[in-house]
Amino acid sequence: MTPTRPAIERAQPRSAQIAALDGIRGIAVGLVVWLHLRAQQMPGGWVGMSVFFPLSGFLMTRLILNERSHTGGHVGLRRFWWRRARRLLPAHYVMLAAVVALLIVGGTWAASDRGAVVSSLLYSNNWWQLAHSVDYWSEFSGRLSPFEHLWSLSVEEQFYVLWPIIAVVVLKYARRPLRAVGCVACGLSVVGFAYGLAITRLGWGSTTDVYYNTGVRGAELLAGSALAVLFAARPTLWSTQWARTALDLGAGASLTVIAVLALRLDGAASRFIADGGMFATGLATVLIISAAVRGGAVEALLSSTPLRWLGTRCYSLYLWHWPIIALVTRESSGFSGWWLTSVQLALMSAATVVSYRLVEDPFRRGVRSSMASWSRNAVMV
């Protein structure tokens, strides 16, 4: 069946930032934050990272392919990296500086914090934690380091450096560029998946060694990248009504399974990670992304205002949620139970809004543009 003109129009991105993708971000960060707040209620919330990684790979690769399309085949890597740095580094470094100051002033600075901070500045925190035998599954006991959550930013930043180089080289020299880069993404993803299985099956390491490993988690990022290439190569794919309905059904089932995993799965005690469960969750997320892009019931759900609000601010929320949990404890605050959770949530919300409004968004849009916008708003008021 040949897609009709409306179907072709639906197949094209309706905006540079599809609203439902922010909703997926909101789900991912919500799962992780609630795990860290109330681990007994959502022991499997860490699957949220396997939701976020494919989405990051999809969005980043789509940016590369869009730039290539708009510039006649050229992708400026320095410009691409500069935009990523402007988007990510300021809020990250402000958080690090603020938390270090709080630790020093409060007299709780530990010797191990220095290595954690330096590795976070250099986006190698995941490897630092592996080298120092930091066990992800025991992070909720003993002294909570306010920097342990930064392993995932390191994984992503390493991917942001390496994958664009590979993709641009393949796109430049391959006879059939899109097919070639798609095959490379799929091939490397399978290699990463197999590497994760080998670590546990062959006794090379523990589940933490799999969880923190860039090569293993890169498989999930590359699954999203492969989807971006597929949509670029076949813009009308899955754009008919029956295809969109099938995507909705598959994505709905995937969301349900992920919710059950988050509520029931104990990563420290299950074989889920050792058996490739994170990669399977990443593939389920690829299906959800497809449904979000093509439109339908799942897109409407993911585009809801609360999820979008959470998704657009997920970076600032992720940066600040764990330091607040680590620093605002029962011992330091005098609160416990739901009172403690409420205080932590209030502080997270405040820190998220301040970071997003004063650091993340201004640097993303450009400081001059943001100052001009603030000036116009002040005049209007």
Layout of secondary structure:
Elements: H1 5-11, H2 19-37, H3 48-70, H4 77-106, H5 111-121, H6 125-131, H7 151-173, H8 177-201, H9 207-212, H10 214-233, H11 241-264, H12 277-294, H13 297-302, H14 305-312, H15 314-327, H16 330-333, H17 337-365, H18 367-380
Describe this structure in words.
It contains 18 helices and no strands. The protein has 381 residues and is mostly helical. It has one domain. The radius of gyration is 21 Å and the shape is globular.
Features:
single chain, 381 residues, mainly alpha, 18 helices, disordered N terminus, disordered C terminus
**SS summary, helix count:** 18
- What is the alpha-carbon Rg in Å? 21 Å
Distance from N terminus to C terminus (CA atoms, Å) equals: 55 Å
Mass-distribution shape: globular
- Oligomer class: single chain
Total of domains? 1
Largest sheet features: none
Q: Beta fraction of the residues?
A: under 5%
Q: Averaged pLDDT, please? A: 89
Uncertain stretches of 5 or more adjacent residues: 1-16, 373-381
Order of helices and strands: HHHHHHHHHHHHHHHHHH
SS content category: mainly alpha
The strand count comes to 0
